[in-house]
Design a protein that fits this description.
Layout (H helix, E strand, L loop, with lengths): L3 E4 L4 E4 L3 E2 L12 H14 L3 E3 L8 H10 L7 E6 L1 E3 L5 E5 L3 H15 L4 E6 L8 H13 L3 E7 L3 H10 L2 E7 L6 H4 L2 H8 L2 E5 L31 H21 L3 H10 L5 E4 L5 H8 L8 H10 L12 H4 L5
Length: 331
């Protein structure tokens, strides 16, 4: 059985590894909703109790898929979703962040309807809006908690300062940010320290470096034409070559441990603190089962040191998003 961890001070208990659902309908090439549905059901069988989605994934189709798949098991799991990536009335993703209170109030009921539920267990601000004080955005989301539509609040890709300011308005249960052996910014920019000091949980998305740490990508030919990673700086030309050198080091350590590179990478994330939950995403049952097995991998101090040496902070070549998207990642 997967170990349980508590996020924040509001009592939200979830599996130490959750499931990121974005790629089931959005961002990572061709999708098969039948396969994705089966993967979600298999996750339930394996003991995963945290399922993460967002209104922009699709848009909208991901929330509908998650709602259908969880069905009768809804009350035994925690569902997290996100709001703030602006979507026009016709369903077009504008590429802007909109965290004005009136926009957030407009979105909440749609997410509830698509998920087929009366409450969201964990509702994140998808990004902090540079034009709206975070206090105003969280203040509006606190209304959803008071109304019983949301159990707990969180931020995604927020700075330590924004975390502290939001937490002062309404207690945050979790902060979700990319965190892996390739992306260790939160260890050096004060974010992990801020959540630890405030008693906030931390949800690490992309713990496999968007799949690169799995060892299954050796060139751009391994990435589908419609896959987001084709425009990701870390997967481009000389950046990819440099990053694969790090992957090879991690793969060697995995062989010595007799686990897969993916399992080693996830185990490293889980070893960073009892308030940390790993959130790998996949649409395939075989990868899901491989990832879940990482929860049983225990790393010694020597093994952790070897991984830290192989992939120190800042080791990855290239930004993790294109420049237009990095504008909304707080540092």
């Amino acid at each position: 059985m997967i170990q349980q961890r508590v996020l924040g001070g509001q009592g939200l208990k979830v599996s130490a590894q959750g499931l990121g659902c974005m790629g089931m309908t959005f961002g990572y090439g061709p999708v098969d909703e039948g396969d994705a549905f089966a993967t979600l059901r298999r996750a339930l069988e394996l003991g995963i109790t945290l399922f993460d989605t967002a209104d922009m994934y699709g848009p909208f189709s991901n929330e509908r898929l998650v709602g259908r798949a969880l069905g009768r098991d809804r009350d035994s799991v925690a569902v997290s979703s996100k709001v703030g990536a602006e979507i026009d009335d016709d369903g077009t993703i504008t590429g802007r962040v909109n965290c004005r209170p009136e926009y957030l109030r407009k979105c909440i009921d749609g997410t509830l309807q698509r998920l087929g539920t009366d409450r969201i267990d964990l509702y994140y601000l998808h990004r902090v809006d540079p034009e709206v004080p975070v206090e105003e955005s969280i203040g509006a989301m606190a209304e959803f908690v008071a109304a019983g539509k949301v159990r707990a609040l969180g931020l995604s890709e927020a700075s330590a300062d924004s975390i502290r300011r939001a937490h002062a308005v309404h207690p945050l249960t979790a902060v979700q940010t990319e965190f892996s052996l390739f992306t260790r910014d939160v260890q050096t920019n004060g974010v992990l320290a801020a959540v630890s000091q405030a008693g906030i949980g931390f949800v690490a998305y992309s713990p496999l470096g968007r799949g690169m740490l799995s060892g299954r990508i050796s060139s751009m030919d391994d990435i589908p034409q419609t896959d987001f990673r084709r425009v990701s700086p870390r997967f481009q030309a000389e950046n990819l070559d440099q990053n694969l050198q790090v992957v090879h080091k991690i793969a060697q350590l995995a062989r010595e441990k007799e686990v897969t590179p993916a399992q080693l990478a996830i185990a490293w994330v889980l070893a960073q603190g009892e308030n940390v939950v790993a959130l790998p995403g996949t649409k395939r049952q075989s990868y899901l089962e491989e990832n879940v097995a990482a929860c049983g991998v225990r790393l010694t101090a020597q093994e952790l040191a070897a991984l830290n040496n192989a992939a120190p902070p800042g080791v990855a070549a290239g930004d993790r998003y294109p420049a237009s998207m990095m504008l909304y990642v707080e540092k």
